[in-house]
Amino acid sequence: MFPSGLKLVFLLKNNFNLVFFKNETLNKDMSLNISIFDYMNPHDFLKDFYDQQKQIDPEFSYTSWAKAIGFSNKTILRLIVYKKRRITDTSAKLITQYFNFEHTEHQYFKLLISYSECKTIHLKKQLSIELIKMQRELSVKKYQLINTEALFDVYSPVILTIINTAHAPMTAIDIQKFCPLNENKINDILGKLANLDVLTKIEDSYFRKSQSFKIPDQSQNLNLKKYYEFWLEKSAQAINAPYEQRRYRSLQLPLSQNEFEKIVSKTNEFALSLLADVENNDLTDRKIYMFNTAVFPVDVI
After folding, report:
1. What's phi and psi for 19, nearest 5 deg?
2. Comparing C-alpha atoms, which of 111, 98, 97, 37 is closest to residue 64?
3. What is the pLDDT of residues 189-222, one digit of tens each?
């Protein structure tokens, strides 16, 4: 999908790990695993935080939470959480202080508020692209390089996409509905991804742990070579699929090296815009589509 190497980006999937709080602001040394960067809506972030806190402590309430944040009453907070009231600058400042957001988290939170309240389609898309860029940059910094074993199987990125699009942790049987592999093979892939610390396992279910990772495009990377060989062969076979389920587009361009670099840059920007267009949080009535790009000189071989 990305000519600069295989880049996997997974968005909008809520974190199922627990979060602990302490006093007036959150203590980030106490297992703060919920991340604002996992969200494309600030209200959903607050709702998930409340639900998790309620599971930890049944006595946790909107009254106590509103007081800890600094709101004058619980009604304001409840309305914000349930998307009945916008997050004003004053409310955003109080929430930022409560969660003890660092600079980048604060910037993302502000951008998230603007995105959720934007009424213009064009501007909303631009904001979504900015959010996705921040998610990718931060995730790649955190997961700078996953061993090429992450591509031990050509279907591992497909399975990761399925899991990260679902609303809840998934089992092999759940995944099998969207993937042409048997249950044993899927379980084998899931187990290896969990060992790589990409997924977290709870009983027979899995959910994503890392948001994004990048495997560098290197000619000696045999797993990456195997991945592209497999899916490019599949893309040729897909010519026999119903027309309404596949498309082909081919261009022949005379390019200088500088023009080639511009094409690569524009392709990456286009990929971001595609991610921004897709509501990546629901598998209902959906198939997993493969979108690959290949740009190379015709005399490369």
Report:
1. -125, 135
2. 98
3. 999 888 887 788 888 888 876 555 556 666 667 8
